[in-house]
Amino acid sequence: MTKLVISPMTRIEGHLKIEVDVEGGKVVDAKSSGTTYRGFENIMRGRDPRDASQITQRICGVCPTAHATASVRCLDNAFGVKPPPNGRIIRNLIFGSDYLMSHILHFYHLVALDYVKGPDTEPFIPRYEGDYRLDPKTNQAGVEQYLKALEIRRKCHEMVALFGGKAPVVAGMVVGGATEVPALDKMVSFQWRLKEIREFIDGTYLPVVYLVAGAYKDLFSVGVGCKNLISFGVFPLDDAEKNFLLKPGSYTEGKDLPLDPMQIREYVKYSWYQGRTTGLHPSKGLTVVEFDKEGAYSFIKAPRYRDLPHESGPMARMWMTNPVLSKHANRFLGIDESKDVRFRDLGDKAFSILGRIAARAEETKLVADAMEKWIFDLKPGAPSWSNATIPREAQGVGLTEAPRGSLGHWISIRDRKVENYQVVAATIWNACPRDDNGTPGPIEQALIGTPVPDVKNPFNVVRVVRSFDP
Amino acid sequence: MTLTRRQFLKICGGAGAAFSLSGSLIPEIVAALENAVAGNPPVLWIQGAMCTGCSTSLLNTTHPSIAEVLLNIISLKYHGTVMAASGEIAFDYLWESAAKNYGKYFLVVEGAVETINQGKCCLTGDKEGREIPFTELAKYLGKGAAAVVAVGQCATFGGIPAGQPNPTSALGVGHFLKDNDIKTPVVNVPGCPAHPDWVVGTIAHALMFGIPELDSDGRPTLFYGTLVHDNCPYRSYYEERRFAKSFGEVGCRVELGCKGPETYSDCWKRGWNGNVNWCVQNAICIGCTQPGFPDNFSPFYVKTTG
Fold this sequence. Notes:
The complex is a heterodimer of chains A (470) and B (306). Chain A has 470 residues and is of the alpha+beta class.
């Protein structure tokens, strides 16, 4: 048996350590460890509740608008306020633009170098050597697209900033709506950029994803994972915020179930937190660190839904929403283009490294196409914000989907200050350690069984981890 | 071409047409930097308690583009978010590059230094079977650097991790190195995140002319020398006592909680993301370039008294 330690796990957000045991050319056991603690939830205590949207965005600099969205929904809920239609739409446009940024960044800048051989210059060397399967021409196209995609993702951030003030980390999302009153020139400026980005998604990103997939077909059966999926739903389409572009729900032990947020618990037996805080619902959750705790191996808690690990992210959302896929998918699958192919038609292929990568690319198109319509739903000059006062005592919950998975914020307000604040973040679902029953988390489960033909260059291990976009 | 320090400062400072057009560094700087690239000292970029927001922000640099920065301008030997290598190969390369260039490289630090539990609160990688806390990395690499560039609010002043009750005893890297008697010069480039022009401009200055002029908080005066409120496009509303009471209303934003009166930065002229917008135009300034952020500026949405 060979023990492989991959630390630092690069090209992700934050600090992650992956340990796998390899026997007979396959991973037989895996551990995922989050190796940093900052204590945001405790830093939130005692503050003005409205500060949540600014403080919590700094949890993740790749998807700050996800935390902005979760926190303002949480505050809307606690304050009892509804954003006007412009507020809802602007939030969707800001967040949608960041989705496009994050997904494009993920594929081209965080993941592609595991499939495309970069130029022979730092920071593209050193690298694992061996399993690069693209022909020289396709590989060169990949390198060129890497550079082009840098520009495209920058423009996505310009779209975020047009209504959000700046990116990353926006000024423009607050309790009660958004701060920017839409002006026609900004709408046009936004739409002009979106047009170019949609062309890139449809003409470059999606085709190359399926091109790469064609060269690595075996990876449609590697990195299966726990096969339980969860989505909180994202991009509310009506003012009651009941219908979402990407649907909420769970797929638990092979059954589709409606989402019940009361079924979430966080366990800490294997995390560096005090044992007395295990098994709590996030509305009553506590984050009390205990360094050097025996048996623990991660600063990430283990969230469970109906007491089972659930994968979250684009693949889960696409499974739940089951939309018609792009025609690129038809071509890849060899299905006549006049027929609709839906995500679930991928079957077991969905539960894999490439299933996750394809889901992300298809979702990018779905969101970008929807945004094209939303921009015209804005009423120039009409308010985007409803005033609201801080309640003396209240509870709130804000659920959304970060680009990388299900995100929830829970608040308790007492004497108009934050009494307790809890965050269950996207990567917590996927990169978590074992729970109190000893059941491994989704990334850990996805690693088990992964072929590692060359332990010096464990390509498939890092491919599995990065397919979750941690 | 050669570019004098004087010209460089003029361009970065946004005097003339450059800032009003793109709000970014202009092609003359790129050309000058590319000339120098062969002899440029390597850059090592390390990350402590952070959110990757400053790296994400750096990717938004327009002139020079990030592709030019990475391929032609800086010899970036280590950056956990962009480099191809993973695990041991990556981490060994960091230590080797540092040893080979000891005393010569520039160290960029993103993220705060968490000092609680002997630093075993932010583990950055495994070396010879041992987990290396960020404290150890910052000390060793800080000592061997020609200069340290602290990027972002966390690396400069501790940022949100150092916000009350500072659960991890986090602090900025300059403060941390001083506490450990390490005398390497430190340049602070705060902001949450830092503007890409501030980062590229500071590194460019350091590569071409040495350490730029700094204020008493260690920030380049070139970028942090002006008070937002004194230069704000909404200043005339303040003089007229016309104050916005709700978002989207015309007027000065101080009643909404704007921290422009206490904040030094050039956001007011540089703008963000290709100058399509900036915080005060959109909502309010929350003081993210200042020491003492967030606690001295929170609550953000309440007017500062006094």
